[in-house]
Amino acid sequence: MCNTPLHAFLAALPKAEHHMHLEGSLEPELLFELAAKNRITLPLSSDAAFASPASLRARYEAFQNLDDFLGYYYIGMSVLVDAADFEALAYAYFAKAASQGVRHAEVFFDPQAHTDRGVELATIVGSVRKAQDRAEADFGLSSELIMCLLRHLPLSSALETFKHANDAGYFKDGTLAAIGMDSSEKPFPPPLWKDLFAAAEGLGIRRTIHAGEEGPPLYVTQSLDVLHAQRIDHGVRALTEGDDALVARLVASKTLLTMCPISNVKLNCIPSIAAFPLRRLIETGVRFSINSDDPAYFGGYILENYCALQDVFDLSVREWETIAKGSIAGSWCSEERKAQLFLEIDDVVHAYVMENEEQ
Ligand code: HPA
Ligand code: ZN
């Protein structure tokens, strides 16, 4: 828990999360439990960090960069094998998110990292769907699933996975809300994925991409120009280093940047939370949301990210209201759901203001 006077308000504030990799919510304890259950050998002989959940957690404190993290991320997810594993993982995230005031979540998964190990796409999406339905019933939490393709694999693999999902009707029936693109960034500039994004655009499928995390602001520009991406995941370097024209373009197009402050610090994309470009985001009017990215690896879910920012930037209740509403506005849910969530935010802000005026 943070020490800011706004902690209770930030916890209660209805939130939308748009940048959370389901595989990145695999806590070390569950990782070890599933490894034992599924008889997966963790690489202890080459990496002592795999001795225990505690030693693994300690290693997570020392990521050098994105690729260093991704090495652990892909080993970790190799313990996910059957439908029950995926459902347990997703439900655990939704329960935690709901406990922190998340009312709408749009979560990523990386199908290629599972199908390459023999797990069927239908097994993954079917079990995640069950967790989504349970979260809706248990917490009133709405959610969408975004299929991310891996940048470190060839375009042909991404196209094949996309075709498989589309042929199965997952975009038409709403099982999948969008495609995304993640994994190692710098060696794989956005234009490499032109054919994939053109195919999705041609079918009217929504598109988002990780860009401007370790890659330069140019990757954000290319994502808009070449890929016609409608959302940018991270985009932090567009704000820390991008010129005014790029920022003005993001503002004018209302492109949502799904930002992840703790992740950015843990992967050495920025030196500290104080270097997170929160003021520039607010002052220029860029649409953005605050997210956890890979909470089990970076040591913070969405509320810890809100609190980390509040500790340093000391925002007002009105500024948080604007951020929360911006994140709802940028969500891929129905207008009806958005209207409902705007009202929920109004209620929480109103209650806070009334309580504090009375004192
Ligand atoms: N960046 C790129 N790929 C990822 C990330 C990230 O932050 N998290 C999980 N896969
Ligand atoms: Zn991410």
Question: What does this protein look like?
Answer:
The structure is a single chain. The protein has helices spanning 7-12, 28-37, 53-59, 66-77, 83-99, 112-115, 121-139, 155-167, 194-202, 217-225, 236-240, 244-253, 261-266, 278-284, 295-298, 302-313, 317-329, 335-358, and strands at 15-17, 102-109, 142-150, 178-182, 206-211, 231-234, 256-259, 288-290. It has 359 residues and is of the alpha/beta class. Strands 1-2-3-4-5-6-7-8 form an eight-stranded parallel sheet. The longest helix is centred in the last third of the chain and has 24 residues, at 335-358. The structure holds hypoxanthine and zinc ion. Hypoxanthine binds at residues 21, 24, 66, 73, 182-183, 210, 213, 263, 293-294. The site of zinc ion has 6 residues, from loops.
Distance between the termini: 24 Å
Level of helix content?
Answer: 40-55%
- Give the tally of β-strands: 8
Overall 3D geometry? globular
Q: How many individual helices?
A: 18
Low-confidence stretches: none
Which structural class do the helices and strands define?
A: alpha/beta
Nearest-integer average pLDDT = 97
Task: Name the bound molecules.
Answer: hypoxanthine, zinc ion
Order of helices and strands: HEHHHHEHHEHEHEHEHHEHHEHHHH
Order of adjacent strands in the largest pleated sheet: 1-2-3-4-5-6-7-8
Main sheet characteristics: 8 strands, parallel
- Rounded to the nearest angstrom, the radius of gyration is 19 Å
Strand content: 5-15%
